[in-house]
Request: fold
Amino acid sequence: MLERRQLLQWAGVAALAGAGGAAWVAYGPRRAGAQAGAPFTNYPLDPVDPANFQQKLFMPGAGGPLGVLDVTAPITIKAGAGSFALLPPRESPFLLYQTDYAGKAYQNPILRIESGARFTAVLDNALPEPTIIHWHGLHTPADMDGHPRDTIAPGKRFNYDFTVSNRGGTYWYHTHAHELTAKQAYNGLASFFLIEDDDQRKISKALDLQLGVTDLPVVIQDKRFDGQGKLVYAPSMPDTMMGWLGDIVLTNLTPNAVQTMTPRTYRLRLLNGSNARIYRLAFVTGSTRLGFTVIGNDGGLLERPEAATEAFLAPGERLDVLFDAGQVQPGTDVFLKSLAFEPMENEGGAGMGGMGGMGRMMAGMSSSRLPLGAAFNILKLPVVAGERVVASLPATLSTIKPIATSGAAQRKIELSMQQMRFLINGRSFRMDEIAFDVKRSSVEVWSISNQGMGMPHPMHIHGFSFQVLERLNSPSDHAGMTRFGKGRMVSDLGWKDTVLVWPGETVRIALDFSHDYPGDQIYLFHCHNLEHEDAGMMINFRVQG
Ligand code: C2O
Ligand code: CU
Ligand code: CU
Reply:
């Protein structure tokens, strides 16, 4: 049943699997005139118009695209070029991670594994260009991390073997090929990496959640398509400065998706897998914002559930939320939206007034029809009649020990721009250059300052998770969201690996560089705006053994 549906929805992958090109016509009235192969010349998937939301959200099944693969033995992941019907029935060239496991074929599998288990995988590069896989958010030895220096040539293999030491949570994996990350990730090379543990099982049990049914992994990505419905990636100079912004919003690779809900609580594991777009998420019906509960983010569950009505989600970040669809009458259409925000507010705030107009100028030059900060819909959630199930949430979700920062080394990280390049502490990435050393097992406090220059930067660290201590000089239109003390927002709680730093803002984070690996370990710290990363907004740091 599931497999048949997958074949129908994913004609492209079905074709890859040798099943031939099944046509899929579930397009709704607005697409009724579209003929297979006819040019895709208009903009029928404008996410601003709620009437354009017609396609069923693709949900992970037991195989196929985004299939959930329970890893209990070594796997082989083949990175290869294929095609995919992103805008069915139109095929688009697409890059895919392909795995055959226990008699099933998977494309971009959702890897699921128990905390503490051994993970053994071979990456087989069947692409015509170099690649490597990075395990985003995972604490691994540096040589297992998928650092761009480990990028492998076409036809080569890379062997991964490490213990999954992170706690349960919603992590992900993606390409980290040197200077090709943005293009390859945009063209498909990314998926979820879910880690299970007792805390995760406890919440699934308490809320009677089932992965793919009421526990919904949802990756949000914005893309652009040409007249034939093929993916376009062609950043101009201003696009590279801003990051490549799409104009069609995909959730689980479905444009303008619809997920029907009954009056009960759903878990949404939201992952921003976009190259550059920041979302200001809210659940809305008409003009009314509905409440939701944040239970986790980058590094697993929070200590306790937190009520919210909005949250930012920057590229690379995850937000685990509970949404009670029983809070509205059956027959109500709820939308997960991105609310409007001012992306350049505060720019030049840190005494850089003279440069203040740069960001606004660049924003005006981006070639996207959907500017950064525009309001649009992401996912339609029609609530239908059904048994009302009221969930009682555990008061405590997990234990998070605050990193003890007394006596910690203080480090300044300055984000700046020179000659149309974004820099970290004045540097642009060089493979063989170590920006600084930290001592193994030491605790450091980093003050990351975005020196104006107009762009928010989602800053990401490899190898370690951190805790957000404080936000200083935040944009004034975030005032309503910073109610968690020290200027922090709901997305700042718990364990993080990516934190958004707004123009003019300083974010202080605490890091504990303890690890069990022998010798020096070299990791990356970079902006997860993938165009910024590929343009060199990245540094190496070394944990001295
Ligand atoms: Cu998700 Cu170095 O990145
Ligand atoms: Cu990472
Ligand atoms: Cu950046």
